[in-house]
């Protein structure tokens, strides 16, 4: 038996999938979750679970999901004891990378200002009102909450990082049975042709995939006809056809494969069968957007850039620049 009662957390989603005719997917998820939490549990789960379970119960909590800081609020101020319990529990879930969040007045200054990314992406999206959304590589689920705040009917985030799951649940536990879920699986663990989602996001994932074209095809398989893909990834300057493959690490990150130019990305989207692909934003990532904080005390972007030329990574590659592209599935 797992110490983590995963059935309780995932049963609303599994039941929903059954109710809309996606029993095959829900059965597959049960097998994957059993494996993850019972057959082969991550060694840190007991510690994260203890931190999560130590968070205080707070009556009447509500969420503000439509503003830069995803915030939990309570009708009356917390007692000093509740405040201390809260801070200790949240500290037990460090490092906090994607956010910001505020838990009843306790502000979590995360490594990333993920709200800046949302501000760059959101103006270009088809209205999220009433949509069913997949967020691939969703991290702590910060953007999933913003999607819900923009009116999405249901949001499924997937990310294999289990600390992210406990950070996500520490928000969700105060919001009750909201139709927002984080499932700890990889893109490759989804069934091939779900054709379920109105919008699928892949932000910060493509460069981690050894086979970026297969990633695009997998993303296409998640969308219904006419659905929208939102792709955000690291890019480099260069002509159509160009893409950079780092020799080893890029900005100290392992597992970085292809950094295409924007024209190359457009070609990839076209060749994988998307239509109307367009670049809606290109921005350099700054050390204001990604930095060490009190809630993420390890090295961050400033440590990964060349100290003599911050326009370059420490390995001598062009500094991080990200593009957002939008395309439709025909
Ligand atoms: N194969 C995979 N399948 C699913 N997730 C994966 C995979 N490989 C890596 N990830 C996950 O993708 C996320 C990438 S971070 C972007 C977070 C958010 N989207 C953001 O835009 O701020 C970008 C970064 O920090 O490099 C991580 O949480 C990985 O666990």
TrEMBL record:
Region of interest called Disordered, as start-end residue ranges on this chain: 309-330
Ordered alphabetically, the record's keywords are: Methyltransferase, Transferase, tRNA processing
Q: Which GO terms describe its molecular function?
A: methyltransferase activity; transferase activity, transferring alkyl or aryl (other than methyl) groups
Q: Does the keyword Acetylation apply?
A: no
Q: Which residues bind carboxy-S-adenosyl-L-methionine?
A: 98, 112, 117, 137, 187-188, 203, 207, 322
Keyword check for Heme, yes or no: no
Question: Catalyzes what?
Answer: carboxy-S-adenosyl-L-methionine + 5-hydroxyuridine(34) in tRNA = 5-carboxymethoxyuridine(34) in tRNA + S-adenosyl-L-homocysteine + H(+)
UniProt GO BP: methylation; tRNA wobble uridine modification
The record's HAMAP family line, in alphabetical order, gives:
tRNA_carboxymethyltr_CmoB
The family annotation for this protein states: Belongs to the class I-like SAM-binding methyltransferase superfamily. CmoB family.
Q: Per its UniProt record, what NCBIfam families does this chain match?
A: PRK15068.1, tRNA 5-methoxyuridine(34)/uridine 5-oxyacetic acid(34) synthase CmoB
Subunit composition? Homotetramer.
What's the stated role of this polypeptide?
Answer: Catalyzes carboxymethyl transfer from carboxy-S-adenosyl-L-methionine (Cx-SAM) to 5-hydroxyuridine (ho5U) to form 5-carboxymethoxyuridine (cmo5U) at position 34 in tRNAs.
Return the protein name. tRNA U34 carboxymethyltransferase
Native species: Marinobacter oulmenensis
Q: Lineage, please?
A: Bacteria, Pseudomonadati, Pseudomonadota, Gammaproteobacteria, Pseudomonadales
């Amino acid at each position: 038996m797992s110490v983590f009662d995963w059935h309780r957390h995932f049963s609303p989603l599994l039941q929903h999938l059954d109710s809309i005719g996606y029993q095959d997917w829900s059965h597959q998820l049960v097998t994957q979750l059993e494996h993850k939490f019972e057959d082969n549990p991550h060694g840190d789960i007991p510690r994260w679970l203890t931190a999560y379970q130590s968070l205080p119960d707070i009556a009447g909590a509500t969420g503000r999901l439509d503003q830069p800081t995803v915030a939990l609020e309570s009708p009356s101020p917390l007692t000093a004891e509740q405040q201390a319990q809260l801070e200790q529990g949240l500290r037990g879930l460090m490092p906090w990378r994607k956010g910001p969040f505020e838990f009843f007045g306790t502000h979590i200054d995360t490594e990333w200002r993920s709200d800046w990314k949302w501000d760059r992406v959101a103006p270009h999206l088809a209205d999220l009102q009433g949509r069913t959304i997949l967020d691939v590589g969703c991290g702590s689920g910060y953007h999933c909450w913003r999607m819900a705040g923009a009116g999405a009917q249901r949001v499924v985030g997937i990310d294999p990082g289990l600390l992210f799951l406990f950070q996500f649940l520490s928000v969700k536990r105060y919001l009750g049975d909201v139709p927002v879920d984080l499932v700890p699986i990889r893109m490759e663990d989804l069934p091939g042709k779900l054709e379920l989602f109105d919008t699928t996001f892949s932000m910060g994932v493509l460069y981690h995939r050894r086979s970026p074209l297969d990633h695009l095809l997998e993303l296409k398989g998640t969308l219904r006809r006419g659905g929208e893909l939102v792709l955000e990834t690291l890019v480099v300057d260069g002509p159509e056809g160009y893409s950079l493959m780092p020799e080893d690490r890029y900005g100290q990150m392992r597992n970085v494969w292809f950094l295409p130019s924007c024209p190359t990305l457009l070609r990839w989207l076209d060749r994988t069968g998307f239509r109307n692909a367009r670049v809606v934003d290109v921005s350099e990532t700054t050390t204001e957007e990604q930095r060490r904080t009190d809630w993420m005390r390890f090295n961050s972007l400033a440590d990964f850039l060349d100290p003599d030329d911050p326009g370059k990574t420490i390995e001598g590659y062009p500094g991080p620049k990200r593009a957002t592209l939008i395309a439709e599935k025909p």
